[in-house]
Amino acid sequence: MLLAIYSVCVFIFIGYMAKLLRLVGNKQSGILLGFLLNFALPAQIFNGTYHAHIDMTFLYVCLISLLCSLGGGVALFIIAKLLKLERNSMLTLSFMGAFGNTLFLGLPIVHGALGEDYANKVIIYDQIVTGIPIAFLAPLILSLGGKGSFSAKAIGLRLFQSPLFLALLCGLALKTLPINIPDELFTPLKSLAQTATPVALFAIGVQMSLKGIKEEWKLTSILLLGKMIIAPLLLFTIVFFSFGGFSDLWRMALIEVAMPPVVSAGAIVIKAGLNGRLAVSAIAFGILFSFFSVPLWLAIT
């Protein structure tokens, strides 16, 4: 796992340095993100979905993890109410505190800690616990920010216009066929999928900004407390007292629940006109904090 965290640090650092040295501008960054979202990540999701073993136990773990993640968001909403924060900061805290970077950051860390089989499970986990819930809630957040209307049509369009969701559906559809597709046919797809993680981490580095940490450090600390301490603590407590200990499947879930806020949630916050400085600060500092917090969570299991 330490080797995986080291690789994550290197890719993010390269992206951040490319930004500081102005080697990558908005145009190049847009091309990279387009390649990532429309080709590399769908290939990774399709390949991972088809090869992952899915059963009721796995779906149960996803459900418990989702409830714990949302529990972190609810806890932050209550804290914001008690502190009498203004509306934009309250919405930013609760929305970003509910969803972690389960794919871009969680996938390589799970792969390093638990192996390829669990990395494949992360692909489906991410869509169940992060991707699809964000697609449902994004129109609501945008409407609260005065940037659109919340409707079933808006949710449906967001889901079925997403290459990531369509790749998940195609992978699940192929799994139901009574035939085995030769692994050799997946070779080009796997090569494309292997580019997803370094490109995604590079893109995170390009988007990172450490300025906002000084300006929003108090709210950033509260957000990360809810997302990276309270939410995984809920999961840890449930597993410890209800199941008596951690299997590798629950360790995968703990890593994912302990992830920092996801980049896409920050983009939605900024688009909705909420507290964008807090969103950027939480993403940047959360990534740095995860390099220490996630190994500690695994150590106590």
TrEMBL record:
The keyword Ribosomal protein does not apply. It is found in: Cell membrane. The chain crosses the membrane at residues 5-24, 31-52, 58-79, 91-110, 122-145, 157-179, 191-210, 222-243, 249-270, 282-300. Signal peptide: none annotated. This is AEC family transporter. Its main location: membrane. It holds the Pfam family Mem_trans. GO terms for biological process: transmembrane transport. Keywords: Cell membrane, Membrane, Transmembrane, Transmembrane helix, Transport. One of its GO terms (cellular component) is plasma membrane. The keyword Signal does not apply. It is a multi-pass membrane protein. The lineage of its organism: Bacteria, Pseudomonadati, Campylobacterota, Epsilonproteobacteria, Campylobacterales. Belongs to the auxin efflux carrier (TC 2.A.69) family. It comes from Helicobacter marmotae.
